[in-house]
Amino acid sequence: MTVMEQRSTRRTGRTAPPPAWQPRTDPAPLLPDAEPYRVLGTDAAAKADPELLRRLYAEVVRGRRYNAQATALTKQGRLAVYPSTTGQEAAEVAAALALEERDWLFPSYRDTLAAVARGLDPVQALTLLRGDWHTGYDPHEHRVAPLSTPLATQLPHAVGLAHAARLKGDDVVALAMVGDGGTSEGDFHEALNFAAVWQAPVVFLVQNNGYAISVPLAKQTAAPSLAHKAVGYGMPGRLVDGNDAVAMHEVLTEAVTHAREGGGPTLIEAVTYRMDAHTNADDATRYRTDDEVEAWRDHDPVLLLERVLTERGLIDEAGMQAVRDDAETMAAALRERMNADPVLDPMDLFTHVYAEQTSQLREQAEQLRAELEAEAEASEGGR
Amino acid sequence: MATVAPEQAAKPATKPATMAQALGRALRDAMAEDPSVHVLGEDVGTLGGVFRITDGLAKEFGDDRCTDTPLAEAGILGAAVGMAMYGLRPVVEMQFDAFGYPAFEQLVSHVAKMRNRTRGTMPLPITIRIPYGGGIGGVEHHSDSSEAYYMATPGLTVVTPATVADAYGLLRQSIASDDPVVFLEPKRLYWSKDTWNPESPATVEPIGTAVVRRPGTSATLITYGPSLTVCLEAAEAARAEGWDLEVVDLRSLVPFDDATVAASVRRTGRAVVVHESHGFGGPGGEIAARITERCFHHLEAPVLRVAGLDIPYPPPMLERHHLPGVDRVLDAVARLQWDQ
Ligand SMILES: Cc1ncc(C[n+]2csc(CCOP(=O)(O)OP(=O)(O)O)c2C)c(N)n1
Q1: Where do the domains of chain B lie?
Q2: Any idea where the Transketolase-like pyrimidine-binding domain is (chain B) (predicted)?
Q3: What CATH number labels B211-334?
């Protein structure tokens, strides 16, 4: 007997008064499938649009190169830290490509690649990670919210923005990204609940990459899957192979369209794997085996696309080389631009705390100015 | 408390009004003037808020402008962040001081910092209304004075009215501000009455301006919000001792009006900071330090603090022992080593 059936069992002569609320949702259509949705490597791959395949391939290869370049920049001391998305490029890129220009992306600290794939200047997208100003871009320009370091806290922002857009009559969708660990945070819960109650046009994309720093998913949640969490809020949950760029693109585009058309939020769990360590500061050998990492190599997002493209004769070696060359050009440009030392004006420390500087800040600004002048004088004197 | 329909409060003549009415009127006027002003929180719609401050707003402006949210403070404030990103001016109600704590992460990590981290491109015009403080017999978690936490967070403006007119004026200014404002409502003053003209109601001074509520020559009492009435009473009582006390109402804790405070203390040479929040690590320490830094050579005595006890807020049956009353203020004044 299920719980639902139990409720209607009459044990005494009296029945409970009817609840003031009505059950709003039939849970069955909200439940995710037991297996992640896949296109690549299945029969459906034969029907995937060639143009889309080529586009995704180019983006994923660029993403891979971008990750490698950014990681190299940490070794050169040009970036303070870089949380790599190597292995997760399909999910990152699909997130960017599923959105229309007017939509908003709410990335977590790991999702620089999604922001760059959306069109953000890579150098501006990296200012946070290089120790430069926290957000190097105007979020309104590409409709990319600042990369959020506190986990899951950007999710309610996405809900609020999407809600506001709808109130204003704009058919704008917000896509909010979070990691598997982030789903344990209270803000995750509050955001999903708000979104469902408000029927806000939001898509939540969880990248389940296996670990939150060192903690595996099994220690993070007891849920059957992260996508299952959606049902409790009254929104559909979708489980998708995060390494399958075509499946990702399809599921995300569907969820975005659903939201845009007034259907409300969706929670998507992309099952993927973080091939690199958490960041360059992490030692992944302490919590996972090489065998485990190796097992994922055969399911690499670049490889999956290469297989289908070559099998279907949609690309040859020269074509693939052209894509790699293009990625190399992007990386070289990034390397060169990141090699320039950023020039920061310390007086800017006071510029954007309040719309109008407080008297307290004016006093402190004067003090810093004096210190800077003294410093400059001393270094001139020493020359 | 009695609820007052907006049209009733709107009568032009100068007449007695409560602080609660003035706050409600400020919200209503701001919403009427600017369609981007949205009120959201727990029970703010149909009920009009547990203190009825938002009474009538949902009826007049609709559920989309005055919204009952799910019960989730981080969610409320987090959603307000997103709304502000999209050009709205959310006014958020935290039901009680201690229930604002779940929203602390949003407040500290995002609300306070968004302008700064986006180099000015993404200011957040959010007003966070928080009924605070004790003296109303509230049970546990309903009487905290949380101002020190907010003051300790750069990027937030923190204001607290003590009069009916200031309640209206400061709230209008807070909503109009392009920065996030923590608007602390001294709940024991909600029902305090004053004659007040709702037709010309605004405080003229900008946020960040303290005011001398009572001029005096012997010593300065520096206070704000719920303790203003205590200080004014103490100043009256002090006349019997031959002390002529000046009372400064800060109105705004951040930004802090060093000029008005220092000018007063330089005139009187003695200062007592009075608030009901705890003393250790409380607002008074910061205020006393600022006074000492600026007025040391004018001081005839150390700057004293009269504050709540350094205890978790006590049960209501004992709260009178915690809250600084007139006698404690006068005792402190007496300890200023009087020389005449
Ligand atoms: C609120 C909060 N707590 C802790 C941290 C420190 N921290 C940074 S990343 C991380 C793990 C996140 O794991 P997950 O959500 O799975 O995302 P992933 O790194 O795998 O992309 C932790 C604990 C943080 N950034 N924010």
Answers
A1: 16-196, 211-334
A2: 17-192
A3: 3.40.50.920
Q: Round to whole Å and give the CA distance between B87 and B37.
A: 10
Q: Is A147:A109 a contact under the CB 8 Å cutoff?
A: yes
Q: What is the enclosing helix (H) or strand (E) of A53? A: helix A50-75
Q: CB A159 to CB B254 under 8 A?
A: no
**If we measure between CA atoms, which residue out of A116, A112, A84 comes closest to residue A97?**
A116
Could you give the C-alpha distances from A330 to A117, A123, A240, A326, A336, in angstroms and in order?
A: 12, 11, 29, 6, 10
Residues A278, A280, A285, A290, Cα dihedral to 10°: 80
Which homologous superfamily does the CATH classification assign to the domain defined by B16-196?
Answer: Thiamin diphosphate (ThDP)-binding fold, Pyr/PP domains (3.40.50.970)
Per DSSP, chain B holds a count of helices (H) and strands (E) of: 13, 14
Compute the distance between CA of residue B91 and CA of residue A153 in angstroms, rounded to an integer.
19
Residue contact B75–A193, C-beta within 8 A:
yes
Q: Does A24 touch chain B (CB under 8 A)?
A: no
Determine whether B298 is an active site residue. no
Q: Give which of A153, A115, A111, A109 is closest to A137, Cα–Cα.
A: A115
**Whose structure tokens read 């003549």?**
B13
Tell whether A155 lies on the interface with B, counting CB pairs under 8 A.
yes
Cβ–Cβ under 8 Å, residues B304 and B272: yes
Q: Token pair for residue B278?
A: 């705890």
pLDDT above 50 for B288 = yes
CA B40 to chain centroid: 19
pLDDT, one tens digit for every residue, chain A (383 residues): 444 454 555 555 677 777 777 666 688 899 999 999 999 999 999 999 999 999 999 999 999 999 999 999 999 999 999 999 999 999 999 999 999 999 999 999 999 999 999 999 999 999 999 989 999 999 999 999 999 999 999 999 999 999 999 999 999 999 999 999 999 999 999 999 999 999 999 999 999 999 999 999 999 999 999 999 999 999 999 999 999 999 999 999 999 999 999 999 999 999 999 999 999 889 999 999 999 999 999 999 999 999 999 999 999 999 999 999 999 999 999 999 999 988 999 999 999 999 999 999 999 999 999 999 999 999 887 65
CATH topology of domain A28-338: Rossmann fold (3.40.50)
Sheet strands side by side (includes B89-93): B66-68, B37-41, B89-93, B127-132, B181-186, B157-159, B252-254
Could B106 and A155 be called an inter-chain contact, meaning their C-beta atoms sit closer than 8 Å? no
Pure H helices in chain B: 6-9, 19-33, 57-61, 73-85, 104-105, 114-117, 147-151, 164-176, 228-238, 258-268, 283-295, 319-322, 326-334
Q: Quickly tell me which residue has 């360590």 as its tokens.
A: A277
Q: In sequence order, what are the beta bridge partners of B157?
A: B181
Amino acid at the residue A69: Q
* Chain B contact set for A156 (CB, 8 A): 74-75, 77-79, 81-82, 106
pTM of the model: 0.92
**Whole-angstrom distance, CA of residue B303 vs CA of residue A285:** 58
The DSSP string of B21-66 is HHHHHHHHHHHHH-TTEEEEETT-SSS--TT-TTTTHHHHH-TTTE
- B135: which 2 tokens? 């003296």
Q: How far apart are CA B102 and CA B75, in angstroms?
A: 9
Phi-psi region of B153 (alpha: psi -120 to 50; beta: other; left: phi over 0): beta
Q: What is the ipTM of this complex?
A: 0.89
Placement of tokens 């949210």 in the chain: B69
Scanning every residue of chain B, which has its alpha carbon at the shortest distance from the alpha carbon of A155?
A: B78
Rg (CA), chain A: 24
A257/A274 Cα distance (integer angstroms) = 28
Q: Which of B70, B123, B208 sits opposite A193 (nearest CB)?
A: B70
